[in-house]
Design goal:
The chain starts with 15 loop residues before the first helix and ends in a 7-residue tail after the last strand. It is an alpha+beta fold. β2 (about 170-180) and β3 (about 185-195) form a beta hairpin. α1 (about 15-40) runs antiparallel to α2 (about 50-70), α1 packs parallel to α5 and α4 runs antiparallel to α5. The longest helix has 25 residues, at about 15-40. It is built from seven helices and four strands. The protein folds into two domains: about 5-135, no CATH class; about 145-225, Ribosomal protein S6/Translation elongation factor EF1B (Alpha-Beta Plaits), CATH 3.30.70.60. About 50% of the residues lie in helices and about 15% in strands. Strands 2-3-1-4 form a four-stranded antiparallel beta sheet.
Length: about 230
């Protein structure tokens, strides 16, 4: 039986079997990372191309590390080649960046034949991702939106509206306001709040209650199309 961990020192002239082990470990560990991402992500539409990229990136990185080996000249040449390539894809979700970097780290570890580090690191990373899925750091509700309404300048009525916002939203903040006059020459103030609802289905109730206040007019409540879901 082949001892997988005894071959870690054969880095100068890797055999075909060692190269196969490297690719196999890269594939298996990166597939585990991709599986963890798919099961712990709260995205409604699973980005299949991103999941494929997680698996493929690890194999590519391991291949590059094997090709470089201990050669400084190869490393500098690879650095120059990568500098020519322009990667313009933007990852807006920090969590996606972490998973992509974890696949890169697995590829590096397998490419230098540090299989124990790769296995332990991958298992620890995946277990932590599943654990975070069950903690308050991963909330189901992430419905963030903008509330706009108009009303005359009235501190007492504005305090009443803030109490309503406290009841229905987890947090809210005044972003901007502006003053103007309507055709009846009445001075009005347009308020704009950013808020996060306590419950996703209570947006309609909040807008309905605000519309029932006589002094409040032009109530508009809109939620982000692409809120970050983690």
């Amino acid at each position: 039986m082949v001892d997988f961990f005894s071959i870690q020192n054969s880095t100068e002239n890797p055999t075909l079997l060692l190269i196969i082990y490297t690719v196999l470990f890269s594939f298996l560990l990166s597939s585990l990372i991709a599986f963890t991402y798919e099961k712990t992500s709260r995205d409604v539409a699973t980005p299949m191309y991103f999941i494929q990229a997680i698996v493929l990136l690890s194999i590519v990185t391991a291949t590059v590390m094997q090709a470089i080996g201990d050669s400084v000249a190869r490393g500098l040449g690879m650095l120059g080649a990568l500098a020519v390539i322009r990667f313009r894809t933007t990852l807006r979700n920090p969590r996606n960046i972490v998973f992509m970097f974890s696949s890169l780290a697995v590829g590096i570890a397998c490419g230098v034949y540090a299989f124990v580090i790769a296995i332990v690191g991958t298992v620890g990373f995946c277990l932590t991702a599943f654990a975070l899925r069950l903690t308050p750091f991963s909330q189901k509700n992430n419905l963030v939106g903008t509330l706009r309404f108009e009303m005359p300048e009235d501190d007492a009525k504005l305090s009443e509206i803030k109490n309503i916002l406290k009841k229905y939203s987890e947090r809210f903040a005044l972003k901007r306001y502006k003053t103007f006059s309507n055709p009846e020459k009445e001075s009005l103030i347009e308020y704009e709040y950013r808020l996060k609802l306590k419950k996703e289905e209570e947006g309609l109730h909040l807008a309905k209650i605000l519309r029932q206040i006589p002094e409040v007019d032009s109530v508009r409540l809109a939620f982000d199309d692409a809120a970050e879901i983690i």
